């Protein structure tokens, strides 16, 4: 089984503590759980399932990587969410997550804006040039100010933050957004906990502001695309949604633009829309550069492409204990394919390890899978001696992926 990597996303959610990372992850798991259920049964069971799964999901949320499915524009996506520690004491761990993920959702509180840990994590992400989108959460709280946070991302983090939305309503009445790309209003439906939305006219009082911010958005993306720039000056109305999204994606992948959206995960608003933008704008494993390592025997540089036909190479990024399956090692596979029951070579210990089983952590179950291929993330069990940072690979084609000298977060200001 090999997956079309175009539809895979390896993402992290970075946030200052208390900005709502747990709540947002919980909503993502809920939606993906319901998505699966919707295929099998009828929609009515969503709420009871949610209650019943709450406890098991509590375990999943703290997992180093959790896998969810997401349907976007008729394609089924496979998303691995890699835990990105929020606390400043875990800089090495943040570095390691940044290494194995391909894109970030950067969460801010709409009230507190850019906070110290957002700054540290932002600079670490800059060191790796990680493409990111911003999600301004807690829009229902008093004092919430989306555009103020966008301004802080520009000024305090020195990044080209560009709003894709304007909030409709505020605090208690926050219910939707103006979608600046499509020039329409959307209001999230409450009966399915914000999993879907209804299109509405742009409220009169927001028409002027919408025109201003849409123009800023078009100008920002046109900067990265010459044909768009011509259209922008000749006839901006002729620019299509697809053209905007494609140019925006290119600029986001280059980490030149940080698209910003908003919501309230606690009130089930906006998480769905944010996830759609993850599919649309953040990289697949095919969009990132091939990984480099060294051959431990010859010291030569080795480059591996995200292709199942290449020799196997994976980085162990977290060792954990799971109440159901015991000691687990989370790996990011960069090239090749690993079958359950086969042997891998550990370049640090110079030993072979048998991997008895391979798992992916889902909202409500640990899923045993027969194999894991390039571009994907999974947890393996059965090993004796694997440490975080170890490279697991094909014995005949050895490679060391990680050198332990991570970039210093203090240098390299945005
Ligand atoms: P984390 O530390 O980033 O994981 O944050 P949590 O998800 O645990 O949220 C911290 C607190 O903020 C909790 O009390 C949440 O209920 C609350 N919270 C999270 N998201 C929202 C939101 O969108 N609106 C409001 N009003 N509260 C929220």
From TrEMBL:
Domain Tr-type G: 6-286
Record's protein name: Elongation factor G
Signal sequence region: none
Transmembrane intervals: none
Biological function: Catalyzes the GTP-dependent ribosomal translocation step during translation elongation. During this step, the ribosome changes from the pre-translocational (PRE) to the post-translocational (POST) state as the newly formed A-site-bound peptidyl-tRNA and P-site-bound deacylated tRNA move to the P and E sites, respectively. Catalyzes the coordinated movement of the two tRNA molecules, the mRNA and conformational changes in the ribosome.
Main location: cytoplasm
Domain of life assignment: Bacteria
Organism of derivation: Albibacterium profundi
Keyword Lyase recorded: no
Family membership noted in the UniProt record: Belongs to the TRAFAC class translation factor GTPase superfamily. Classic translation factor GTPase family. EF-G/EF-2 subfamily.
Intracellular or extracellular location(s): Cytoplasm
UniProt keywords, alphabetically: Cytoplasm, Elongation factor, GTP-binding, Nucleotide-binding, Protein biosynthesis
One function term, GO molecular function aspect: translation elongation factor activity
Binding site for GTP: 15-22, 83-87, 137-140
């Amino acid at each position: 089984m090999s997956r079309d990597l175009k539809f895979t996303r390896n993402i992290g959610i970075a946030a200052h503590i208390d900005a709502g990372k747990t709540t947002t992850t919980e909503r993502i798991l809920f939606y993906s759980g319901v998505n699966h259920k919707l295929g099998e049964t009828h929609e009515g069971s969503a709420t009871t399932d949610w209650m019943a799964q709450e406890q098991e999901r509590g375990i999943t949320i703290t997992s180093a990587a959790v896998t969810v499915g997401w349907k976007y524009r008729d394609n089924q996506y496979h998303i691995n969410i890699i835990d990105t520690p929020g606390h400043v004491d875990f800089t090495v761990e943040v570095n390691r997550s940044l290494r194995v993920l391909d894109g970030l959702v950067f969460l801010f509180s709409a009230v507190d804006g850019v906070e110290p840990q957002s700054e540290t994590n932002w600079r670490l992400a800059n060191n790796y040039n990680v493409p990111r989108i911003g999600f301004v959460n807690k829009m229902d709280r008093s004092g919430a100010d989306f555009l103020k946070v966008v301004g802080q991302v520009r000024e305090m983090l020195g990044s080209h933050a560009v709003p894709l939305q304007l909030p409709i309503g505020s605090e208690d009445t926050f219910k939707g957004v103006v979608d600046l790309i499509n020039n329409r209003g959307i209001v999230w439906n409450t009966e399915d906990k914000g999993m879907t939305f209804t299109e509405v006219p742009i409220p009169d009082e927001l028409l002027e502001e919408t025109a201003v911010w849409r123009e800023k958005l078009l100008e920002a993306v046109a900067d990265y695309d010459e044909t768009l720039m011509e259209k922008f000056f000749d006839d901006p109305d002729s620019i299509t949604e697809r053209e905007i999204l494609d140019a925006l994606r290119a600029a986001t992948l280059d980490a030149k633009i940080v698209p910003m959206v908003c919501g309230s995960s606690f009130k089930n608003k906006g998480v769905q829309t944010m996830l759609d933008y993850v599919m649309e704008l953040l990289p697949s494993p095919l969009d990132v550069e091939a990984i480099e390592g060294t051959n431990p025997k010859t010291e030569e540089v080795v480059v591996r492409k995200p292709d199942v036909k290449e020799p196997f190479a994976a980085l162990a990024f977290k060792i954990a204990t799971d109440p159901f399956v015991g000691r687990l090692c989370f790996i990011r596979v960069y090239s090749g394919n690993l079958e359950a029951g086969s042997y891998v070579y550990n370049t640090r210990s110079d030993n072979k390890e048998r991997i008895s089983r391979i798992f992916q952590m889902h909202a409500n179950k640990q899923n045993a899978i027969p194999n894991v291929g390039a571009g994907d993330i999974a947890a393996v069990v059965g090993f004796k001696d694997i440490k975080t940072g170890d490279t697991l690979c094909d014995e005949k084609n050895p490679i060391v992926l990680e050198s332990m000298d991570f970039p210093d977060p203090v240098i390299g200001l945005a």
